[in-house]
Every structure is written in structure tokens, then in C-alpha cells.
Amino acid sequence: MDEILSRCGFRCDLCLAYRPNVEANLAGRQVLSDGWHKYFGFRIPAEQIICDGCMAENAHLIDKSCPVRPCVMERGLANCSQCPDCPCAQLTERLVVYEELATRTPFPIPSEDRTRFIAPYENKRRLDQLRRSS
Hints:
The protein is mostly helical. It contains 7 helices and no strands. It has helices at residues 19-24, 28-40, 68-74, 89-92, 98-104, 111-118, 123-133.
């Protein structure tokens, strides 16, 4: 699957909630629900986990209250890296930096957990790279 970047810099193609990934592995939804709870402190019931990605038209989204998507769309941008106000308060709420998460987690993070539950959402570094390259 090609790389699919969300408005805030998440990697949809790596996310277990992304519709093609759910359809390929239904059991991944419970795994993801548990992982999000373990590392980010929220739980979404497994049966509710499916997302088309915020780049899709009429998308089914997990986070219906995301403030980033409508902002980026109103500005006519592909993602936050193109915004002169980046990082704004809305994006800052959504930034994921592995090193910061690791310091808040009271146990070592196994590499498999980082791959499944953290890497898809490590958006700060990704957005910074995009800003530098454009």
C-alpha cells in the first residue's frame, strides 16, 4: 500500500483503523483498542474502529471532533506542513513524538508496540520533514 498521509501528518496506511487494514484483519481492531488505551489513555470499542482517512470524501472518521481536518481543508492545504501557522494550538494537541511518549510511559515500549500503536501517529517529525523539503 502506498503512503497515505492525513491532514495532521498521521500515516493512514500504517494505522490498524484504516479501512483496508481493518478489512484485511478484523482482529486488529481489538488489538488497536487495547494499544490506544495503553499508550494514549483512551478506549474506543473495537466494533467502532474503522476509518476511511481524512483525505477521503464523505469519510467515515474515528475522530469526528478533530479540529485539524476542517482547518486544513478551509485553508485549501494538503496537510499542516503547508500552513504558515504550523504548529498551531489545534495541531499541538495532536502532535505525537515517540521520545516524549516514552518518557511518560512507566515501562519500556516494545518495538512491536511502537510499530503498531505509535509509529502511524508520529506526526511532528513527519511534518517537520515535509516543511523542510518544500
